[in-house]
Design goal:
- The protein has 600 residues and is of the alpha/beta class.
- Among the domains are: 3-73, no CATH class; 410-597, Alpha/Beta hydrolase fold, catalytic domain (Rossmann fold).
- The chain contains 20 helices and 16 strands.
- The protein has helices at 3-22, 27-45, 53-73, 159-170, 228-232, 245-248, 253-259, 265-280, 298-306, 338-351, 357-361, 365-368, 389-394, 426-429, 431-434, 438-441, 465-490, 515-518, 531-550, 586-597, and strands at 95-97, 100-103, 105-106, 112-119, 142-144, 151-152, 185-186, 191-197, 204-210, 236-240, 286-296, 318-322, 402-408, 495-500, 570-574, 578-582.
- Strands 3-4-8-10-9-11-12-13-14-15-16 form an eleven-stranded mixed β-sheet, sandwiched between helices. A three-stranded mixed β-sheet has the order 1-2-5, with no helix packed on it. Strands 6-7 form a two-stranded parallel ribbon.
- Helix 1 (3-22) packs antiparallel against helix 2 (27-45) and helix 2 (27-45) runs antiparallel to helix 3 (53-73).
- The longest helix is centred in the C-terminal third of the chain and has 26 residues, at 465-490.
C-alpha cells in the first residue's frame, strides 16, 4: 500500500480521534472510527488497488463522510453530574427539611456528607416565568440528593470549545471516559447543594457561595469552588443555581405593573436561597445566625447588591467578594438603569413577535434562550433594590457587618482577546472607563505588551495591550473593591482587602485564579501546582475559614492581615509572598473617582 495513501489517512484519523475526545463523544465513536479507518485502508489496498482516480476520490469522500456521521451519531448523552466520582457511593442517613426527607452521599473517605440538588423554590416555569420565586413544593417519601440538578438555561458552549478552553487557558484538560456526557440544562433550576462535615455537628459556621458567569452563564459543580475542603475544616458550605440571562434579568413595563418589580429575578432567587438556608441549615448542623455570603465575579456583584437589598437584611452576617461589585456610582458591569432594562424587555418581545406577556411566557425555553438581546444585569426596580447601591452604602445602611474582598493581578486578560491596542490608540480604547480623563489615564502606567505567561494564542496583542489590560483590571475589578472597602470602612465596618498575584501552571492570577486556593481545590488538578501553591492554599483556606467563624481572617499560623480601615493604601498580597503591600492602582482610582463623580 502506498505511503501517499497511508500517511494522509493516518493524519485524518488521528485528528478525528482528537476531535472525538475533545467533543466528549462516547467510546462507541472511537470504535466506529477504528472500523471506518480499517475498512478504508483494506478497500483501497485490495478492491480499489489500481482503480481509476475518481473511484479513489469517491472512497476518500466516503471515508470523511462516515467519520462525520460517526461524530454526529455518538454525541455525548445528557446526564446528571454525580455528587462524587467514586463507584457505589455510600448513602447518608435521612435529613428532614421543610419540604420533606432526603439523603445525600458521603465523600470517598467518609469525612464529608454531600447533598446535591435540593429544591429551594418551586420550578419557575409557565406562569411563574419572570415572577418572584415561590416556596418549594413538599414531597412524600425520601428524596435521593446524590446528583447535581440541571444548570440554569443559558447558551450551551459546544463541548469542543469548552475542552479547548480547558486545554489552552485553564490547562486542566485530562483524557478520561468519566466526562463523556453533557450536563442537563433547564428552566427548572432552583436547587442548592450542601457540603457538611460528616456526623453529628451543631452550630457550625455556614458559607453560602454564589457562582459567577456575567449573570448569563455558570453552574454549581465547577471544581474550583467545590465546598468539600471547607467542610473538612468544619464549615457547612452551600451553593445554588439561580435564573440567568433572559430568564433571570429581563425587565419589562408589564412585569413592573404586574408585580411592582422587574429585571431582578436572579437576585430574588438568591434571596430565596438565603431564606431557605435560614429555615433549614440547622438540620445539617449549620448555625443560621453565623452565615457568610460569598461570591466571585458576577456572584460577587450579586453579593454587593444583596448587601443593600432590604429583602436580604438579616439573612447573613458577613460578606466575601471576589473580583467584582456594584458599589460604584456607575458600575462598569452587571448593572443597568431601569429604563435600559425596560427597553431590553420590549426588544425581546418584538424579536419574538409577541403581543403580550402571556405569549412571551409561552415561548419554549430552548427558543427563548437564543435571544439576540441578552439581559444580564441587575437594576433598581424599587423592590429588590430601592436605589443605586452606592447611595445605600454612603448612608451606612448596608447589611454586612464585616467584609473580606479583593481582586487579582491579571483579571481582565480573558475579556480582552478581541482587542488590539497600540500606544497611539490606548486613550481611545479606555475612554469608556475614564471618559474625559482617558488621555490622562493613558499616561499613568508604563506602556507595555502582555506579559509572556498570559499571552494566549487568540489574543490580538499590540504594543500597549498590557497597559490596556492593567487599566481594564483597575476599572472593572480593582476599583470595584477599593470603592466597596472605602464605603464599608467609612461606616465603621471592619474590612480586609487582598490582591492575588500568584502565577502557576493553570489560570495564574487571571480572573477566577484565586478560587482553587481559597476554597481548597488545588488537589483536583495537582499536576499544575508546586509546593508554594499548596502552601498559599493552606494560608488562604485558613483566612477564609477564620472569617467564616469569627468575622476576622487573622489567627494562628497565618501572616497578619491588617484591616483596610487602618491604612487605605495597603492590601494583602497573596502570591509568592504573603504580606501587606501598597495597592498598585492608587493613582488610577483618583481618576476613576473623578469620572464617577461626573455620573452622579
Amino acid at each position: 500500500m502506498k505511503l501517499g495513501l497511508i500517511i494522509p489517512a493516518v493524519i485524518i484519523f488521528l485528528i478525528f480521534l482528537a476531535v472525538l475526545e475533545l467533543s466528549k463523544n462516547t467510546v462507541l465513536g472511537w470504535v466506529l472510527a477504528a472500523i471506518v479507518f480499517a475498512a478504508f485502508l483494506i478497500v483501497n489496498g485490495t478492491v480499489l488497488k489500481g482503480g481509476a482516480w475518481y473511484i479513489k476520490a469517491l472512497s476518500w469522500a466516503m471515508f470523511i463522510a462516515l467519520l462525520g456521521a460517526d461524530l454526529w451519531l455518538t454525541q455525548p448523552p445528557i446526564r446528571a453530574v454525580p455528587a462524587v466520582d467514586y463507584k457505589n457511593p455510600v448513602e447518608t442517613g435521612v435529613v428532614s427539611v421543610t419540604e420533606g426527607a432526603l439523603t445525600g452521599v458521603y465523600s470517598e473517605d467518609k469525612a464529608v456528607e454531600l447533598y446535591m440538588g435540593v429544591p429551594y423554590a418551586k420550578p419557575p416555569v409557565g406562569e411563574l416565568r419572570w415572577k418572584a420565586p415561590q416556596d418549594a413544593e413538599k414531597w412524600d417519601g425520601v428524596r435521593k440528593c446524590d446528583t447535581y440538578a440541571p444548570q440554569a438555561m443559558q447558551g450551551r458552549t459546544p463541548a469542543l470549545m469548552g475542552s479547548l478552553v480547558d486545554l489552552f487557558i485553564y490547562k486542566q484538560y485530562r483524557v478520561t471516559t468519566k466526562d463523556n456526557f453533557l450536563a442537563p440544562m433547564s428552566e427548572d433550576c432552583l436547587y442548592l447543594n450542601i457540603w457538611k462535615p460528616a456526623g453529628e455537628i451543631k452550630d457550625a459556621p455556614v458559607l453560602v457561595f454564589i457562582h459567577g458567569g456575567s449573570l448569563n452563564s455558570g453552574q454549581t459543580w465547577w471544581s474550583e469552588y467545590n465546598g468539600e475542603a471547607l467542610a473538612r475544616r468544619g464549615i457547612v458550605v452551600v451553593n445554588f443555581a439561580y435564573r440567568l440571562g433572559v430568564f433571570g434579568y429581563l425587565g419589562h413595563p408589564e412585569l413592573l405593573d404586574e408585580a411592582g418589580s422587574t429585571g431582578n429575578y436572579g437576585l430574588l432567587d438568591q434571596v430565596k436561597a438565603l431564606e431557605w438556608v435560614q429555615k433549614n441549615i440547622g438540620a445539617f448542623g449549620g448555625d443560621k445566625n453565623n452565615v457568610t455570603l460569598a461570591g466571585e465575579s458576577a456572584g460577587s456583584s450579586s453579593v454587593s447588591a444583596l448587601c443593600v437589598s432590604p429583602l436580604a437584611k438579616g439573612l447573613f452576617r458577613r460578606a466575601i467578594g471576589e473580583s467584582s461589585s456594584v458599589t460604584g456610582v456607575k458600575p462598569y458591569h452587571t448593572f443597568r438603569t431601569l429604563d435600559a432594562a425596560l427597553k431590553g424587555g420590549e426588544d425581546v418581545q418584538k424579536e419574538f413577535g409577541c403581543a403580550d406577556l402571556a405569549e412571551m411566557r409561552a415561548i419554549p425555553a430552548e427558543k427563548l434562550v437564543g435571544t439576540q438581546f441578552t439581559p444580564s444585569a441587575m437594576t433598581v426596580d424599587g423592590y429588590a433594590l430601592k436605589e443605586q447601591p452606592y447611595l445605600t452604602y454612603e448612608r451606612g445602611e448596608q447589611n454586612e457587618e464585616a467584609l473580606l474582598n479583593g481582586y487579582n493581578k491579571n483579571e481582565s486578560i480573558v475579556f480582552s482577546f478581541i482587542y488590539k491596542v497600540d500606544e497611539a490608540d490606548l486613550a481611545k480604547n479606555i475612554e469608556p472607563l475614564f471618559g474625559e480623563f482617558s488621555e490622562e489615564a493613558a499616561k499613568l502606567l508604563p506602556v507595555e505588551e502582555i506579559s509572556a505567561p498570559y499571552k494566549y494564542i487568540v489574543d490580538q496583542g499590540g504594543s500597549a495591550k498590557g497597559t490596556f489590560d492593567r487599566l481594564l483590571t483597575a476599572a472593572w475589578f480593582a476599583y470595584s473593591h477599593n470603592s466597596w472597602s472605602r464605603l464599608d470602612a467609612k461606616a465603621g465596618i471592619p474590612v480586609w482587602e487582598y490582591y492575588f498575584t500568584k502565577d502557576n501552571g493553570s489560570m495564574g492570577s487571571n480572573h477566577g485564579g484565586e478560587m482553587p486556593y481559597c476554597y481548597g481545590n488545588l488537589n483536583r488538578h495537582a499536576w499544575l501546582y508546586d509546593e508554594s501553591d499548596f502552601a498559599l492554599e493552606n494560608t488562604m483556606l485558613t483566612y477564609w475559614e477564620n472569617f467564616c467563624r469569627y468575622g476576622d481572617p487573622n489567627g494562628a499560623g497565618v501572616p497578619e492581615w491588617r484591616k483596610f480601615n487602618e491604612d487605605e493604601t495597603k492590601v494583602l498580597e497573596l502570591g509568592e509572598k504573603v504580606g501587606m503591600v501598597e495597592d498598585p492602582f492608587l493613582e488610577v482610582y483618583k481618576l476613576i473617582d473623578k469620572y464617577q463623580d461626573t455620573q452622579r
